[in-house]
Amino acid sequence: MRILLLLLSILLEVDCLRVLRDPVTLSFSNQRNRDFKNQFSISDSPYQWSTEWLANVPVDHFAFANNDTFKLRYFINTKSYEEGGPIFFYTGNEGALEGFALNTGFMWDIAPEFKAAVVFAEHRYYGETWPYPKSLSYNDTRYLGYLSSEQALADFALLIDHLKQNRIPGAANSPVIVFGGSYGGMLSAWMRIKYPHIVHGAIAASAPVFWFFDSGVKEDVYDEIVTRAFVTEGCNFKAIEKAWVGLDNLAQTEEGRAYLNSLFKLEKTRQLQTPGDVNIIKNCVHDVFDTMAMVNYPYESNFMAPLPGWPVAAACKSLSVVAKSDKEAAEGLHAAVNLYYNYTGKAEILCTDPDAALGENNLWPYQACTEMVMPICSSGPPNDFFWNTCPFTAAGWLEECKQLYVSFILHDAHFMVPHAALCPTLQNRASTLLRFYQENSIIHVKIIDQSIFPCSWVVSRKLEIKNVRT
After folding, report:
1. Name one GO biological process term (predicted).
2. Rounded distance, CA 209 to CA 183, Å?
3. What global pTM score does this model have?
4. Nearest 5°: CA angle at 143, between 142 and 146?
5. Which helix (H) or strand (E) holds 399?
6. Last residue of a domain, one of 354, 375, 399
7. 106 within 8 A of 444, measured Cβ to Cβ
8. Is 203 within the bounds of a domain?
9. Is 94 domain-assigned?
């Protein structure tokens, strides 16, 4: 049975720092996919919109010491809208807005049925919505410190008011349904909670709204799910265990390291020089496993990289039996990595510098360090087929964040775990909180284009439409 990944996020690794990010955002910013816009022309998409800007958005909605303002980008389509109809509003994630508009077909599919306006709002500090120039924001927390989910929610509330009062005719009393996936789904859920007088309902797809400290979510659950997904698709648990040992053994000698450098086509700055450098490859493979499990679509996709349908099953073909030698074990892992990095056969290097995978906007890790602190680690067998990195501690995470953002010199005062209070709030509103668990599924499934929707997922889609209506 193909496993449902409830958490819409991508795990990036900067040395040991694992950060959650939506694969849709990386389709527009990933180092390996920077020509994505050229591969797929927005003008060829069935989804069309007008690009508009909301002016005079406060940089700080909650204090009076900063009166600076900025312009927030949003997309709008009113082709299906009729006066008094609903507004379908996407709460933008950590990336350029185009990726969400192109990959959230659910909103477009049902807009004609509901006579709805369709709006996608961009998150501050991503895409083209920057309160301050990038040159300032990347180097000084006086300018970057306004990057938070709380400020973004206030941006969206302001935009919704503008849409209803000024932009969309006859929409003053229109209901607003917010949509989102992954972090965007968290924002949608929180919009409904924090602004119930503005938002009438929310579809939060694959949103890990409970994944914070003291929430009851196991810190090693993600890799447990990833492991289950691969084993279900034919991977041999012992074969992957053997492969890690094979990498460690080969890295002990200069000859073995040279073999690994050549096999994995490591770029010069990432080539193994010492036995400890083997973690470069291990983290690379770990990242590939995490990612492929999330984008395990039944059709070819290009979210993170060009991949075949059911990529996990394809990767498991090389990891179905225990290898007889260290080199054979390494070659099995290489085949999986090569599928991810080089499905088209055009890649000259495979395991790139993890920093490059963050794309142009290296700011989601900053959010992960300052507010979106989601406990995640591997505990190793029998829970998962990785190596033990648990326990996850606030002190350890803070230290890794300090290393990543050494120029910012993060202090304990900057280390926050907000929204913990939202968990009991959600539980107290259980009568209005509906959770759909969909088997044989993957990320973004609840909000993708229905034309690529497998038959087994139709029931979930019908339930969502029913609840939008009510």
Report:
1. proteolysis
2. 8
3. 0.80
4. 95
5. helix 394-404
6. 354
7. no
8. yes
9. yes
